[in-house]
Amino acid sequence: MPSSLSRRRFLTGALRAGAGAATISFTGGIAGVPRAGATLPAGVTSAPGSPPRFQRFVSRPDLRPPGVWINKAPAGSGPGSPSYLFAATITAPGATYPAGAQPGLMIFDRGGRLVWFRPQVPLDVEPFNFSVQTYRGKPVLTWFQGTLGPGFATAGEYFLADDTYKTITTVRGSLGIPCDLHELLLTPEGTALHTAYEHLPAAELYNGHAMEVDVATGELVFDWSCYPAVPVSKTYTPGNADYFHINSIDLWPGEARNLLISSRNTSAVYLVERSTKAIVWQAGGKGSSFEMVGPGARYEYQHDARSLSDGSGFSVFDDASPPSPEHQAWAKTLRVDTTNRQVRLVEELSHTTLPLVVGSQGDNQLLPDGSHFVGWGSAPYFSQFAPDGTMVLDGRFADGVESYRTFTADWIGNPAGRELAFVVRRGSRPGELTAYTSWNGATEVAYWRVSAGSSTATLTEATTVARHGFETAVELTASGATEFQVTALSIAGQPLGTSAVVSAS
Predict the structure, then answer these.
(1) Whole-structure pTM value
(2) What number of CA atoms fall less than 13 Å from residue 334's CA on the CB side?
(3) Which of 13, 48, 313, 498 has its CA 20 to 30 A from that of 443?
(4) What is the pLDDT of residues 392-408, one digit of tens each?
C-alpha cells in the first residue's frame, strides 16, 4: 500500500457459526461500545453513544423512526458530498428493535435530521438495500421488501418509486425463483440485475443466480448460476448448503457488459463473460487466478464488490468475519493486473475508534471525488472518509438497529400534498400558541409561512420562519385567531404547498 495512505483499523467480533463453519446470519450477536483509551480521528470530537430509541413529532405522531447520531469533523464532509443518507432500518442480529421505534425506509441529512420515513407495513416482511438509482433517465428510489430464509430472501420484490414517493413499478423474480435482498442494479439499458437463490434438492444446495430482467416487461434477459460453474469444493463453509452465497453484482466497464460477482462463502470475486457465461477470472479464495500481493490484498467473506470506473480493479467491503485470519473489517480498493496476474491493495479504511462487531453485510460506496461512504452492516454504524483517508463523518443508529447497506446520495423529493402536516397547540397563557409543521419527504422547503385569523376568509400572514429539520415549531401570538394555515415556501419564496385550515387544540 502506498505510504501516503494510512490504514484505518477497527476491531471486529464473531460471526455466528453453524455446524462448525462460519455462515452468514441475520440472528448473530453484535456489540458496539467505545473502546477505553481509543484515539479519535482528527476533527471528530467524541465517540458516539447510542441515540434515543426513536424520534417523536407532534405533527406526525404516526412516524417513529429510530434515533440517529452523527458526528463529523469541523471541516465537514467535503464540498462535493451528497446531501442525504439512505437506510432501510431493521432489527440488528441477536438484538431487540428499540421499543416504540418503527422499522422502515429512512432518508436523513448529514446532521442526522429526518427527511422522509416510510414505516414498514406489514411487519412480517423486512426492507433492505434502500438507495437512489436512475431509471429511464430519472432518479428513483429502489428497495427490497420480503421475507428471509437462512441468510437470503425466500420471497419478495424490489420497488421503484419516483420523486413523489409513489411506486412506479416492481421487479420480481424469473423462472419461478424469487428476487433476493442482496442486489438490485438498474442499468442504462432499462434492465435490472438482481440476485436470486434456487433450492436444488437433488444436489442438497442453494444455487445463487445473477439475473437480468427488463424492468418494463419483466422479461428475463440474462441468467448466470454459480452451480456448477463454481465447484462446491471452493467454499469456506463446508456443510452449508449455501456454499457460494452471491451478495453483489456489478457491470464491468466496457461494451461487453461483463459482470463482477461477489461470493461471500468462497471469499472470492468473479468476472463473468456475458456472451459465454464463462468465468474470465477469479480474484481471491481457493484457486485464485491472481496472486494476492502484499498486506491487505486478501479479503474474507466480503460484500459489495464494485468495479472501478476505468476497469483497473474493484472495491469491496471486507467483512473479515471469523474464522478469517484478518480479524478486522475493511473498506478496500484493489488493483487488478491481468498481465502479471496480480491483485494489489490500493487503499483500505476502517473505523478508528470503536470495537464494532461486523458479522455480515455492509457496503463501500466510492464517491466521484475519491471519498468513501461506508455502511458497517450488522453493526449500527456508518462513516465517510475523505480522499486522504481521514474519517470526516461518523454516525450510528439506536441500539438494536442495523441497515444492510447505508448509502449517501443527492435527492429531490416532491411528496404529495397530503403529507404536509400542520397542528396548532395552545400554550399555558391566553393567546400563546405553538404551531408544528412538517412535510414528509419534501427537500425543497426553505420557509414556512403561517397565517391566522378569526375565520377562513380572514386569514392573514402571522409569521414566516426558516425551516428547521423535519418538524419546525413556530411560536405564535395571535390574539383572537381561531383558524390557522401554513404554506411551504421555496428558497426563492415561491409557494410549494398549503395545508388545510386547522383550529388550535
Answers:
(1) 0.90
(2) 31
(3) 48
(4) 999 999 999 999 999 99
